[in-house]
Amino acid sequence: MEVFKAAFSEASNSCDRIAIKADGKSYSYGQLTSSALRISKLFLKDDTTNGGQETKKYEGFGSLKGARIGIVAKPSAEFVAGVLGTWFSGGVAVPLALSYPEAELLHVMNDSDISLLLSTEDHSETMKTIAAKSGARFHLIPPVVNSTSETVACNQFQDDSFEAEGKFLDDPALIVYTSGTTGKPKGVVHTHNSINSQVRMLTEAWEYTSADHFLHCLPLHHVHGLFNALFAPLYARSLVEFFAQI
Fold this sequence. Notes:
Elements: H1 2-13, E1 18-22, E2 25-28, H2 29-46, E3 68-72, H3 77-88, E4 92-95, H4 102-111, E5 114-119, H5 124-134, E6 137-140, H6 148-155, E7 172-177, E8 187-191, H7 192-206, E9 213-216, H8 223-235, E10 239-242
Parallel strand pairs: 1-10, 3-4, 3-5, 5-6, 9-10
Antiparallel strand pairs: 1-2, 7-8
Helix pairs in contact: 1-2, 1-8, 2-3, 2-6, 4-5, 7-8
């Protein structure tokens, strides 16, 4: 949960601080976390187990009860918000490769038991088809935009909202698939604890700071692109700039 907490803490303390640059646009921590909260509320409305009722201000931890959420988006603020929103709701994020053919996408969907697929508009038609064939629900990731009302809600997000954090540290947070060189791609499960350990280790070893600026040229369905170039820099409050051509 450390990456998640760092992003929300920065949104509360320095809401306008730039976290991500992509496609010539800058996105603040406040914008990212506001978008993550919007996605969390989207999950609640889609949740048939509670009738779609938002019984708390933000249901947060555990509302997805470990459901696997597929995320399809180019390196962007929307991708980051999709992961944060999934974690905030107690789900497991499964990044899908943009280069996968349909057969590989369906393999990952079925193998990891993805129940809901998040996608940006530019991949929506293909992903709607994939979701339908695998029996998953489909939602568009809302564009990350500056919303004053939701940023205020984000600023009111207090540390006591993480009071149940310890119950979830050993739960799965992320499933990253192998390349499939010698067979079908296999899902590697990372818990919140394992992610925490890796981002802390990387931050200390490379001495990342909030003054650093990372040019991100790596795919986001690989460990190196996720941990070394995204999660660890966000944990250190560094600025991440996605290379526009990836």
